[in-house]
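Is this the right way to post structure tokens for a design question? Let me know if I should format differently. Anyway, here goes:
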């Protein structure tokens, strides 16, 4: 299960790349406890110590979390290196990780008992405390809404509108829209259930796969008692055509807005296909 808090020591793999430098600076400015970076180059990045590999970084800093900002074909090696070094939470931001690599990564992470957020994700945040990734500050604010999202851009808009209404987040996790991923909605449900700072759950879903149906089954099985508000995007998408994400693909009746809506409503969730309808419902709770 995901375990992060204000003082979680975090390293950045790929810290000397252009994106690594940029997002390290933003994460530090937000308050994330970044203690070093991993890179083959000796360059100054915000005065942080740099190491050749994760093992050296962990030995010197005690890091337990990593944000990997590396090219697509380097994501699997970065994950394997991190778990071999004892990292417990791994967030990978890169789009385009090969599916067979994601399958291998998921198996390795599970065997190690670690938590992987990705393959491709905008990251996660405890608003006002830390962020691992590039969730936009304008959409972040401390509050009591737990947020889980497949789509980064949709979740930015939803949370920005909610923040404008004075409603912030307790924990926001972008699980990503990949067909194979390290963490799914249902995996996070016990975390939100146990968190006293979370009073309601906002789900940003989309067509494709069975993740929302799986979540609905878990809500029922676990007796999740907090209100759930879900947005399902892709109402007008055609069968067999992807909607941006590799996992957003309808096959017959599987993965449709209708099937996800039925499952979630049967579990007691409030389901919407328009952002503003969801925002109004959450604001009225």
């Amino acid at each position: 299960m995901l375990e992060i808090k204000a003082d979680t020591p975090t390293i950045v793999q790929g810290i000397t790349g252009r994106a690594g430098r940029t997002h390290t600076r933003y994460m530090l400015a937000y308050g994330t406890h970044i203690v070093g970076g991993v890179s083959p180059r000796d360059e100054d990045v915000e005065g942080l110590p740099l190491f050749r590999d994760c093992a050296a970084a962990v030995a010197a800093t005690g890091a337990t979390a990593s944000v990997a900002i590396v090219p697509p074909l380097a994501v699997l090696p970065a994950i394997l290196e991190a778990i071999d070094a004892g990292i417990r939470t791994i967030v990978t931001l890169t789009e385009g990780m090969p599916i067979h690599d994601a399958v291998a990564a998921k198996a390795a992470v599970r065997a190690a008992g670690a938590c992987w957020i990705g393959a491709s994700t905008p990251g996660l945040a405890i608003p006002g405390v830390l962020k691992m990734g590039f969730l936009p500050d304008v959409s972040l604010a401390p509050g009591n809404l737990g947020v889980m999202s497949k789509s980064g851009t949709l979740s930015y808009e939803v949370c920005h509108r909610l923040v404008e209404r004075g409603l912030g987040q307790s924990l926001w996790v972008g699980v990503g829209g990949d067909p194979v991923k390290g963490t799914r909605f249902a995996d996070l449900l016990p975390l939100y259930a146990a968190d006293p700072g979370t009073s309601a759950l906002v789900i940003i879903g989309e067509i494709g796969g069975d993740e929302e149906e799986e979540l609905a089954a878990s809500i029922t099985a676990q007796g999740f008692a907090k209100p759930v508000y879900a947005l399902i995007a892709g109402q007008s998408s055609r069968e067999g055509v992807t909607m941006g994400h590799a996992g957003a693909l309808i096959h017959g009746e599987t993965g449709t807005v209708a099937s996800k809506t039925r499952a979630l409503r049967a579990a007691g969730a409030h389901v919407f296909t328009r952002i503003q309808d969801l925002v109004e419902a959450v604001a009225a709770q």
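Format looks fine. Someone answered above. Worth noting: Residues 245-251 have pLDDT under 50 and may be disordered. Residues 99-112 form the longest helix (14 residues).
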